[in-house]
Write a structure and sequence with these properties.
This protein is of the alpha/beta class. It is built from eleven helices and 13 strands. Bound molecules: 5-S-methyl-1-O-phosphono-5-thio-D-ribulose. The site of 5-S-methyl-1-O-phosphono-5-thio-D-ribulose has 19 residues, from helix 2 and strand 8.
């Protein structure tokens, strides 16, 4: 059993939902009941460990095949955030050298717990590094939701804002709405408001003129996958914010944990971008366009090239271009909190 906050219902209703079956887990990830790159990795890891525990007790001969099939289904639930495949593979690998199903399930559970705890620690470190870039009185633009809802800890981009707030800095956050599923206005605004941090929601289309008028001191966003050269896959709309930030000289930071770096992929052009249902675009506007033959394109993510990223804030320090994130990933478990000089 895995318990999640059903993010589809926020901010209207706070409901915790128990996921018991593989279908429940895949559906929760696909429909964004649980969402955010680190959170879907943690949820899939916990889900897979719990399914393996159930299968180990049922005593069927094909235990390993069935666990691997669960892993494949979870891995395939969403394509863009690398954390999902990474977490599933880690949990599967943890049980690989055991024979007894009960021992395999225990090893998988320990690994899933480790992934969750590491994510919590990485969020805190990202928050501390990120807060060092913020000053009292700043207005910070963020996109989508990268906070406690999206991770096992305090969040990534929002983690920096939470730590700055803890340190007594007055930070004002602009949360862009994040069409079509409104993670900015529904989730980020809700989280920050509960934390007592000043937040204003802005339409995605209002961001350019706010940067033009000098109303934004810096941008901090999260990531679903960062390639070796520093290209960033993140929620659709991130690229347009980055382009505008570049045009008006506003620093554009990306905050993400090691688990979001895909050292196997060099360029953002090779990242699979999830295409979601046209209904998310059309129905949210309250019309039945699909029935009238109106179509919609609904890419869920875009790629911001490394050239538009001022710095990448990670759990092991703050990196500036030219990025060689393969080297960072290789050094992944060295936990020296000083900023490495890559
Ligand atoms: O489709 P979503 O809501 O899962 O997309 C989430 C994002 O794009 C976040 O910015 C990213 O996963 C980082 S969350 C710490």
């Amino acid at each position: 059993l895995v318990r999640i906050i059903d993010q589809r219902l926020l901010p209207g209703e706070f409901l915790e939902r128990d996921l018991r079956t593989l279908d429940d887990m895949v559906d929760a990830i696909r429909t964004l009941a649980v969402r955010g790159a680190p959170a879907i990795g943690v949820a899939a890891a916990m889900g897979l460990a719990s399914l393996a525990a159930g299968l180990s007790r049922s005593g069927t001969g094909d235990f390993r095949e069935r666990v691997e099939a669960c892993g494949r289904a979870l891995r395939g639930a969403r394509p863009t955030a690398v954390n999902l495949a990474w977490a599933v593979d880690r949990v599967l690998a943890a049980g690989a050298d055991q024979e007894d199903p009960i021992a395999v399930a225990h090893a998988m559970r320990r690994e899933a717990d480790a992934i969750r705890e590491e994510d919590r620690d990485m969020c805190r470190r990202i928050g501390e590094f990120g807060a060092s870039l913020l000053r009292d009185g700043m207005t910070v633009l963020t996109h989508c939701n990268t906070g406690a809802l999206a991770t096992a800890g305090i969040g990534t981009a929002l983690g920096a804002i939470y730590v700055a707030h803890e340190r007594g800095l007055r930070i004002r956050v602009l949360a862009s709405e994040t069409r079509p599923l409104l993670q900015g206005s529904r989730l980020t605004a809700w989280e920050l408001c509960h934390a007592g941090i000043e937040v204003s929601v802005v339409a995605d289309g209002a961001v350019a003129s706010m940067m033009q008028s000098g109303s934004v001191d810096c941008c901090i966003v999260g990531a679903d996958r960062i390639t070796r050269r520093g290209d960033v896959a993140n929620k659709i709309g991130t690229l347009s914010h980055a382009v505008v930030a570049g045009a008006y000289g506003v620093p554009f930071y990306v905050a993400a944990p090691t688990s979001t770096v895909d050292a196997e992929t060099v360029s953002g052009l090779d990242v699979v971008i999830e295409e979601r249902s046209p209904g998310e675009i059309l129905l949210i506007a309250g019309h039945t366009g699909e029935q009238q033959g109106i179509m919609a394109n609904n890419p869920a993510f875009d790629i911001t090239p490394a050239e538009l990223v001022s710095a990448i804030i990670t759990d092991s320090g703050i990196y500036k271009a030219p990025y060689d994130l393969g080297a960072w990933k290789a050094a992944e478990r060295s936990t020296d909190p000083s900023t490495p000089d890559l």
